[in-house]
Amino acid sequence: MRAPRAVDGGTGSRYVVSVAGETHDVVVDVDGNVVIDGSAHEASLSGPGPARMRTLILDGKPRAVCAETRSGGFWEFEIDGDRVGAEVLDARAARVRALSGGAGSERGAASLKAPMPGLVVEIAVETGEIVEPGAAVVIVEAMKMENELRATAAARVERILVAPGEAVEKGQILVEFAEVERK
Fold first, then answer.
1. 26 close to 73: Cβ distance less than 8 angstroms
2. In the chain, N or C terminus with fewer CB closer than 10 Å?
């Protein structure tokens, strides 16, 4: 078994994966091997089989896997018959999330901030609305790209401080949230 080589300088794709309340740094190199939180693993994935099932071989251990994408980087996986949800962000989306004030659901309700100067294109929520993690909140255009800023935790929209067409500065608070009680 060949040891996976280190991934650097554009030889792989970097992702931030949040599952079961934990966040992991995942890099997939050009050969399909992965580095998870700095630990290298040999991996391969078979083509789709019946019912879109694939076989993932991770460090020599096969697992039956089916993955379905949801909106906003959310995925639902079935692994050996168990279902699990995960949020998968590429490195750029994770940086935008961090700059916009959302670093994960453990922070609870927090303000949504502009990650860079731009123009508000759309407000996707209303005051009083309950949002779930990953729900689109505000779309900001910056450098000719639209950035969909999302809720990082379940929260109630307390105040919307911007309007479509408004220019915003980096770090400006766009939406304030309040915590919601979970039953």
1. no
2. C
69 neighbors 53 (Cβ within 8 angstroms): no
Amino acid at site 128: G
- Which residue(s) pair with 17 in the sheet? 24, 88
pLDDT for 159: 94
Whether pTM exceeds 0.90: no
Nearest to 97 by CA among 115, 111, 110: 115
105 phi-psi bin (left φ>0, alpha ψ -120 to 50, beta other): alpha
Cβ neighbours of residue 144 under 8 Å, at least 6 residues apart?
none
List of E strands, 4-161: 12-19, 22-29, 34-36, 39-41, 43-45, 54-58, 61-69, 74-79, 82-90, 112-113, 118-123, 130-131, 136-142, 145-150, 155-160
